[in-house]
Amino acid sequence: MRVVGNVDILVPIGNECFDVSFVVCDIDADGVLDQDFLRANVDSINYKRSCLKMGDDIVPLWTGGQALHICS
Residue 20: phi, psi to the nearest 5? Predict the structure, then answer.
């Protein structure tokens, strides 16, 4: 995987805004939330209903495309 650079961005999710550092890579995925972000900010992941629970917010979760074929 070729790393192009990195960027810090304020990302609005639900009713919150998160300062997230992204590593920009030459991949086909639309975006990936890493385990550190999920552990720090997400209370639960409901794959059956395709949503994240973050405090009082329920945030839609998209796992389409290549994500359906990746398991690690």
Answer: -120, 135
The predicted model scores a pTM of 0.54
Q: Across-strand partners of 59?
A: 52
* Of 36, 27, 25, 23, the residue nearest 66 (C-alpha): 27
- The residue among 42, 40, 2 whose CA lies nearest residue 23 is 2
* Whole-Å CA distances, 37 to 17, 43: 13, 11
CB 19 within 8 A of CB 10: yes
Contact 72, 27 (CB under 8 A): no
Listed in sequence order, the DSSP H helices in the chain are: 35-41
Low-confidence ranges of the chain (pLDDT < 70): 29-33, 63-72
